[in-house]
Specification:
By secondary structure, the chain is an alpha+beta fold. The chain has a single domain (3-114), classed as 2,3-Dihydroxybiphenyl 1,2-Dioxygenase, domain 1 (Roll), CATH 3.10.180. Helices cover 18% and strands 43% of the residues. It has 2 helices and 8 strands, in the order E-H-E-E-E-E-H-E-E-E. An 8-stranded mixed sheet has the order 2-3-4-1-5-8-7-6, with helices on one face. A hairpin with a 7-residue loop joins strand 3 (36-40) and strand 4 (48-52). The two termini are 16 Å apart. The mean pLDDT is 96. Residues 2-114 form the VOC domain. This is Lactoylglutathione lyase. It comes from Streptomyces gancidicus BKS 13-15.
């Protein structure tokens, strides 16, 4: 398994204000689905932060996203470990395959691969 990037997911109703604020730190918008916006560093594109109002298709909002090269393999490993799967493995209409798992401290981790 290869981790491609790790992105904190900030929960906020002030999405435009966060775009402006993180822009002061050098981030630029690279994705915006209305309910989630991702900002990235132009000089280091995997340095990212996402701002979300609420996850559109999951029962809970993730605290962190981890993009991996093979989400199916990671899902099997995590499931076999007995960790709590919060949102099942599925293909999303915006081009990712993902699942959510709860870490030992209760944080929800969105594990994904782009299709």
């Amino acid at each position: 398994m290869t981790v491609r990037r790790v992105v904190p997911n900030l929960h906020s109703e002030a999405v435009p204000e966060n775009r402006e604020f993180y822009g002061l730190l050098g981030f630029e918008e690279v994705m915006n689905h209305g309910w989630i916006m991702t900002l990235a560093s132009p000089s280091s594109p995997t340095a990212q932060v996402s701002v979300m109002t609420a996850d559109r298709t999951a029962p809970v909002d993730p605290d962190l996203s981890v993009e991996v090269d093979d989400v199916d393999a990671v899902y099997e490993t995590v499931r076999d470990s007995g960790a709590e799967i919060v949102h099942p493995l599925r293909d999303e209409e915006w081009g990712v395959r993902r699942f959510f798992v709860r870490d030992p401290d209760g944080r929800v981790v969105n594990v994904l691969s782009h299709r």
